Amino acid sequence: MICASTGNTSASAAAYAARAGLTCAVLVPNGKIALGKLAQALVHGARLLQLDGSFDDCLRVARDLADTFPVTLVNSVNPFRLEGQKTAAFEIVEDLGSAPDVHCLPVGNAGNITAYWRGYVEEDTRDGAGRPRMHGFQAAGAAPIVRGSVVTRPQTIATAIRIGNPASWDFALQARDASGGGIDAVTDRQILSAYRLLAHREGVFVEPSSAASVAGLLQTRAAGLIEAGERVVCTVTGNGLKDPEWAISGAAKPVTIPATVAAAAAALDLQRS
């Protein structure tokens, strides 16, 4: 199997390929992949090729290889990939008892917003679970759907959504329009603010790309497009250890002290009771 990846797809593809005894080839943009994600693909034995170009160049090459040689492409242009992803919507409905009013999620290659909406539609058709408004969020420096044109050099700290020409662009627009939702952009500053908010207040450590969904939620609520009392689901499934650079760079440096109780107590401003 083969995939182009900003990191998350390659990690999953490599793991499942290893379990199935298959060879996994991964095409990534050179120097633009978070170290934690790169490590996952490597440890599972994937054959990693770094291309001098963007994710979109990687996907183009991967698609051409799959068309020409006996390899299977497992990016979201593969319909089986979307069929698997849509089941996440089934799980949300099962957990909540019905569909949420709003579902916010990051948009990179646009496979998730496409698949979740497909799942909600199927679940509603089957059981009358309802359908949420789908709100997707791209990083401002990598927002081709918002701009209405391909971004040839996407730039954002949110590496998983640093994509300038989403493969599921048209499907994402269909999900947006059919659900009455929206696709908007959030800045890197907003993403980092949401990233820290999740960590400090909720105890949830996500990668910056996942925080885009919460940044978008806050922006959409401030714009009056989400009412108080509405039930909202945010997709934040990218673990922070996949892309720890911003956690480390933004944290206070550890304090070095002597190995004594007195020094520790002083450093922590502790006083005897």
Automatic annotation (TrEMBL):
Pathway in which this enzyme or protein is active: Amino-acid biosynthesis; L-threonine biosynthesis; L-threonine from L-aspartate: step 5/5
Enzyme Commission identifier(s): 4.2.3.1
Reactions mediated catalytically: O-phospho-L-homoserine + H2O = L-threonine + phosphate
Essential cofactor(s): pyridoxal 5'-phosphate
Keywords attached to this entry: Amino-acid biosynthesis, Lyase, Pyridoxal phosphate, Threonine biosynthesis
Keyword Amino-acid biosynthesis: yes
Transmembrane segments: none
GO molecular function, one term: threonine synthase activity
Segments forming domain Tryptophan synthase beta chain-like PALP: 2-238
InterPro entries the record matches: Cys_Synth/Cystath_Beta-Synth, Thr_synthase-like, TrpB-like_PALP, TrpB-like_PALP_sf
GO biological process: threonine biosynthetic process
Primary role: Catalyzes the gamma-elimination of phosphate from L-phosphohomoserine and the beta-addition of water to produce L-threonine.
Family to which the UniProt record says this protein belongs: Belongs to the threonine synthase family.
Record protein name field: Threonine synthase
The species this protein was found in: Candidatus Protofrankia californiensis
